[in-house]
Amino acid sequence: MRTAYSFFSRLACVSMGLGVLLVSSIAATQAQSPSGDIAPVWSPVNDDIAYESDQDGDSEIYVLSLNSGKVSALTDNNASDLSPSWSPDGKRIAFYSSRDGNFEIYAMKTNGLELRRWTSDSAIDWHPSWSPDGTQIVFESWRDGQPDLYVIDIEAEALSRLTQTPQRESHPVWSETGIAFGSLRNGQWGIYLLTPESEETTAVVTGLGIDPNPAWSPDGQWLSYTALSRGTTDIHVIDRMGEHHQTISDNEFQDDFATWSADGRRLAYSSQRQGRWRIFIREVTLP
Predict the structure, then answer these.
(1) Which residue of 1, 49, 77, 205 lies most exposed, with the fewest beta carbons within 10 A?
(2) Residue 30: in which H helix or E strand, if any?
(3) Are 177 and 215 in contact (CB under 8 A)?
(4) What gap in Å lies between CA 281 and CA 154, rounded to an integer?
């Protein structure tokens, strides 16, 4: 692990509608990353945020400590390392990488050590998410010629297939409530909920216009997601039954990749309001 930089600045706290928008800027990244800092994911045990950034010319995994302000690079190679996902105990991070010539699922300790490769297939494996007990990882794969969801049991090293549809199933996220994922079923993007034990799938919300990148609240009762409207993307929150909805961001900028804090009171997400993708934090108040 190497420390990328340690200067972290809070640019503004602005009262806006549903709570406080804490505009958080990773100062060194502003000058260095061509595209920016995206796909943040909050640690389930503290105020660390893992994310991907191309500040060194290709995508690497970084961790930002909100308490100390230190940013550390967990990966450092010429490949693309993407889509970090914390284990439930906060001790490991899964991600997908092209370091072996094809996108596969990997996991490492939060100091970047003890790297382990969990998939090996000629197809693309991506967007991993841990099971609540930390023994399995669900991911999206293009094996068998179509994008479906698969689960790898990391103890038994056994692979199983969860979905089998001609439409794309994407960005699965796992909680005690079940596996939420984006899908193009019925010809439009929506969020669906799958219960692995019963293999039942139900729609939570549809008509989103874009891959929704869902994320569970810590209690498994709410989902944040991205939807397309007025030619841009905004962050929304909905309960797992699809009955109560809130718009979190509503502006002319692209906002995406929301993630919940461990206390369930804040959302971090990426936004292009500064010209490149940057990470912002907003307090949320739920019914």
Answers:
(1) 77
(2) helix 27-32
(3) no
(4) 33
Give the Cα separation of 148 and 129 in Å (integer): 14
Return per-residue pLDDT of the chain as tens, 287 residues: 443 333 233 333 332 333 333 333 443 333 344 578 999 999 999 999 999 999 888 899 999 999 988 899 999 999 999 999 999 999 999 999 999 999 999 999 999 999 999 999 999 999 999 999 999 999 999 998 889 999 999 988 899 999 998 889 999 999 999 999 999 998 999 999 998 887 789 999 999 999 999 999 999 999 999 999 989 999 999 999 999 999 999 989 999 999 999 999 999 999 998 788 989 999 998 87
| Helices within 33-153 (DSSP H only) | none
- Give this prediction's pTM: 0.89
The full set of domains in the chain, from first to last, is 2-283 (2.120.10.30)
- 3-state class of 27 per DSSP? helix
- Is the separation of the CB atoms in 109 and 116 below 8 Å? no
Which residues sit opposite 7 in a β-bridge? none
How deeply is 224 buried, as exposed, middle or buried, from its count of CB atoms within 10 A (0-12, 13-18, 19+)? Answer: buried
> Which residue from 41, 217, 233, 212 is spatially nearest to 128, judged by alpha carbons?
41
Nearest CA to 128 out of 82, 80, 191, 167 is that of 82
